[in-house]
Specification:
Elements lengths: L6 H12 L5 H5 L5 H26 L6 H9 L1 H34 L7 H19 L3 H32 L10 H4 L11 H8 L16 H30 L10 H12 L8 H30 L17 H14 L9 H33 L12 H22 L12 H16 L1 H11 L6
Helix pairs in contact: 1-7, 1-10, 1-12, 3-9, 3-10, 3-14, 3-15, 4-5, 4-14, 5-6, 5-12, 5-13, 5-14, 6-12, 6-13, 7-10, 7-12, 9-14, 14-15, 14-16
């Protein structure tokens, strides 16, 4: 009998999957108003997602994940749509997170490489193939590495950044943002003032991914909800305070989305005569991001494997290796991500490309979350006699309130994703909106092919 994942390890895995120092510069771009957006995002997204994932996992401890939950509620066709949205979101997202690693590594080699598309492109592709090969060794191995990377490269640097920011303010150093009611509350006159919500929502994505570990968790009905609640609190406060730490030290127009974290650590450590520790920072940041990628890379692929097993893809995609990893899907995924990375050559700047990918992947993911929230409502009423260790407080009223808030947050995020931030250059607002719309078409169009394949194929669910 294989060893089960304990509560502490599960908490670290969830934090390593979702919490990340890489998203902080995107949030810091919006100054003190990010306080409002973090609170707003927690109410309409993070808390609803955490509560729903906890109840669904406690209700169905035998198997977890979005594909399984949506399939239970609406059947395998809607489940295919959900897992496709999750999987393609990660395809769009991988280049952005890998470009963050590439930018961080550049600080160890030559900071001027950050502005080189050729360097970024080649590093991103090489890293992704390396992670793909590693994930061919299965879920159990990835969980162990994700936990270790989470402690070293996510939790430690986040706490350090927050402490340095607090010391900076306490010792009277200059602050680049103003804290007042006028600056904290955003203007409601234009949608463009709300674009910071995209980066914050992006930082909260992935709570449901931990469901893939449900069968390997010790006492899942009790430990999974507890892990989600504890991890959610840490994620919320660490991201809010970490973003403020960057915003108070770097002027808004000088924040780099790719290398801003290393820059702020450099300023902090030099100011406090701790520059000797600076070479370690890029290394531990890379370690933390690697832990996040390992989990993100394998979990959606395993969900997509279920769709292949239900006949929406040829048998080739349903093949698993001796480590129970979806080998062929992982290889195809690596090929597609490599091809997608060449979009780098079509954008005016690395910052612009990073933001475009973040906005597109986040808004696509919101469509999947809408399906998850709708599935939660359906399953809540459909399986009324199924035992649950954890239930959303308030019974049916609590469930409806939670899911409506979550759906509202998703819709708002999708709408805002079509508006470009004023600080970045995309040519024109219309061009940016057109790029997002084109991304939707490219991502959603293949679904019709899968449905036709299932219809005319002799393959049946097994």
């Amino acid at each position: 009998m294989s060893k089960k994942i304990p509560l502490f390890s599960l908490i670290i895995i969830i934090i390593a999957t979702i919490d990340s120092i890489r998203n902080l510069p995107s949030s810091a771009l919006f100054g003190s108003s990010l306080i409002f957006f973090f609170v707003f995002a927690a109410i309409v997204f993070l808390i609803p997602t955490a509560l729903v994932a906890a109840e669904l996992s406690a209700t169905f401890p035998e198997k977890g994940g979005v594909y399984y939950w949506v399939n239970r509620a609406f059947g395998d066709k809607m489940a295919m749509i959900a897992i496709w949205l999750q999987w393609t979101n990660t395809l769009v997202w991988y280049p952005s997170i890998l470009s963050f690693i590439a930018g961080t590594i550049a600080y160890l080699i030559s900071p001027s490489l950050i502005s080189s598309p050729v360097y970024i492109l080649s590093t991103v592709i090489a890293l992704f193939w390396a992670f793909t090969i590693f994930n061919l060794f299965g879920l159990r191995t990835s969980a162990k590495i994700s936990e270790l990377c989470g402690i070293i490269g996510t939790i430690f640097p986040l706490i350090l950044l927050i402490i340095l920011g607090a010391v900076w303010v306490y010792t009277g150093h200059p602050i680049q943002i103003e804290f007042s009611a006028a600056t904290i509350l955003p203007t409601f006159k234009t949608a463009s003032s709300w674009v910071s919500l995209i980066s914050i929502m992006a930082g909260f994505l992935g709570m449901e991914l931990a469901g893939v570990y449900i069968t390997g968790i010790k006492n899942p009905q009790r430990n999974f909800p507890r892990a989600i609640c504890i991890a959610s609190l840490f994620i919320l406060f660490s991201m809010l305070l970490g973003s403020l730490a960057i915003a108070i030290i770097i002027p808004q127009n000088e924040i780099s989305l790719v290398a801003g974290v290393v820059e702020v650590f450099s300023l902090f450590l030099n100011a406090f005569n701790l520059s000797w520790f600076l070479p370690v920072i890029p290394i531990i940041i890379v370690v933390g991001t690697v832990g996040s990628i390992i989990n993100w890379l394998l979990s959606p692929a395993k969900g997509f494997l279920h769709a292949a097993e239900f006949g929406y893809l040829p048998p080739f995609f349903a093949k698993k290796n001796r480590f129970d990893a979806p080998a062929n899907i992982l290889i195809i995924q690596a090929i597609l991500v490599s091809a997608f990375c060449f979009v780098y050559l079509l954008v005016p700047s690395v910052n612009a490309f990073y933001w475009l990918l973040t906005a597109l992947s986040t808004s696509l993911y919101m469509l999947m979350y809408i399906l998850m929230f709708l599935a939660a409502i359906t399953l809540h009423h459909k399986y009324i006699d199924r035992p649950k260790v954890f239930k959303i407080p308030g019974g049916s009223i609590g469930m409806w309130t939670t899911t409506i808030l979550g759906i509202f947050g998703c819709i708002i995020t999708i709408i805002i994703s079509f508006f470009a931030p004023e600080a970045l250059q995309f040519g024109s607002k219309a061009k940016y909106a057109l790029l997002i719309a084109l991304g939707y078409v490219i991502v959603l169009a293949p679904l019709s092919i899968f449905f036709l394949y299932k219809k005319f194929s002799k393959k049946r669910p097994r």
